Amino acid sequence: MTLLIYWISLLFCLLSYASSFGTRYTPDWASLDSRPLPEWYDEVKFGIFVHWGVFSVPAFGSEWFWWYWKVALKPEYILFMVKNYPPGYSYTDFAPDFHAQFFDPDEWADIFEASGAKYVVLTSKHHEGFTNWGSQTSWNWNSVDNGPHRDLVGDLGAAIRKRSLHYGLYHSLYEWFNPIYLSDKQSGFKTQEFVEKKAMPELYDLVNRYKPDLIWSDGDWEAPDTYWNSTGFLAWLYNDSPVKDVVVTNDRWGLGCYCKHGGYYNCADKFTPGQLPNHKWEKCQSVDTISWGYRRNMKLSELMDLPSIIKDMVYVVALGGNYLLNVGPTADGMIAPVFEERLRGIGAWLKVNGEAIYSTKPWRVQAENATVPVWYTSKSSTVYAILTSNPMQNSFKLLTPKTSHNTVVTLLGNPEPLKWAPLQTSGLIVLLPDLPFSPAEAWTLKLHAVA
């Protein structure tokens, strides 16, 4: 009996010891997809995406400049090189001019904080293979040994975290012209030399060195996740990495994975679902509608204006998503004034209306076709009705909310309760004050104690 008691006690100790380490995830999608998404990500709602690299030097057409010039053979890219650079000029010759001499990470972080964003995602490496930190497997094709001669990932991360923002890193799995990757590709991805020598060592290095709160994977579409060993990496990330309890990942981990596997779903770039998805998602959108990287040839008509950005963000949040808005800095490290103006405009709107965005949930109805478009978000017993244009009238009907004797209606930014009356069947009519001027052309009605 004494021996039985001993073994039972030992078993309880072992179970207690195991539970103290939480759930262990195995390297398969069934297990990895069962991991709960860390709460911070759903609460923050709005982030800034930053595409920055050697492509910022030619700053022409797109961050896919190298590919369009050498593979797609787009005439405008070829002509650009013929007109502006000598014969024999190679893409790698651009790197020394990626000097970032005006890059002030604290200044960037101030702008991002002023935008109201709660997380920032920087490109650690795009498809060109140039790493924005001193990767030991980059063979001098990195920002420490070349170009800026500084650790861009680390410098920005320190500034972002001083402002209590979350820091994420974009990382492209594949590289267009890496000879090791091209060799694996030629084998039909039966060999994994690039994964073992380049892709995975860099990901492990990024996590251990910078401890990102988010990993935004990309460049996955040519090969399956079994080639990339994605599930093995994610199992380590969720079980044993220094960020295992807080890190968030997206869904781009191999051919056929997006919108199916991973932490949250990006699906396609600028993903815009027509109805409320059943999984946490994110829309990445660029202020410059043509390119993610900086373009010297961009035109004002090709940029999103502030009302368009706010409407897009409200739509995304109402449908349960996060909004990741991209800006492309210049090669010398500046955020163009037109981008800064947009970001500060968002922040000004969020100072008044952020209560209807941050930490909200989708309501039972996401939108209503009133006299102007209305999008709904919710928080406990409070519902927010966001008007994305001015109704130009004093009385305004909302047909969806079910009122009670305790219902109180206010306009965010205006402390005085508004007069309202219930409609006969459902909804209410509210007496609007003169709406204050809003460059964003959006206002929020706060409805307390409605169903």
UniProtKB/TrEMBL annotation:
Listed GO CC annotations: lysosome
Signal peptide: 1-20
Keywords annotated in UniProt: Glycoprotein, Glycosidase, Hydrolase, Lipid metabolism, Lysosome, Membrane, Signal, Transmembrane, Transmembrane helix
A Gene Ontology molecular function term of the record: alpha-L-fucosidase activity
Transmembrane segments: 44-69
Domain Alpha-L-fucosidase C-terminal: 366-447
Subcellular location: Lysosome
Domain Glycoside hydrolase family 29 N-terminal residue range list: 23-355
GO biological process, one term: lipid metabolic process
Main location: other
Top EC group: hydrolase
Sites annotated May be important for catalysis: 284
KW Ribosomal protein (keyword) present: no
Enzyme Commission number(s) from the entry: 3.2.1.51
Family listed: Belongs to the glycosyl hydrolase 29 family.
Function: Alpha-L-fucosidase is responsible for hydrolyzing the alpha-1,6-linked fucose joined to the reducing-end N-acetylglucosamine of the carbohydrate moieties of glycoproteins.
The protein's name: Alpha-L-fucosidase
Lineage: Eukaryota, Metazoa, Chordata, Craniata, Vertebrata
Gene assigned in the entry: LOC107743818
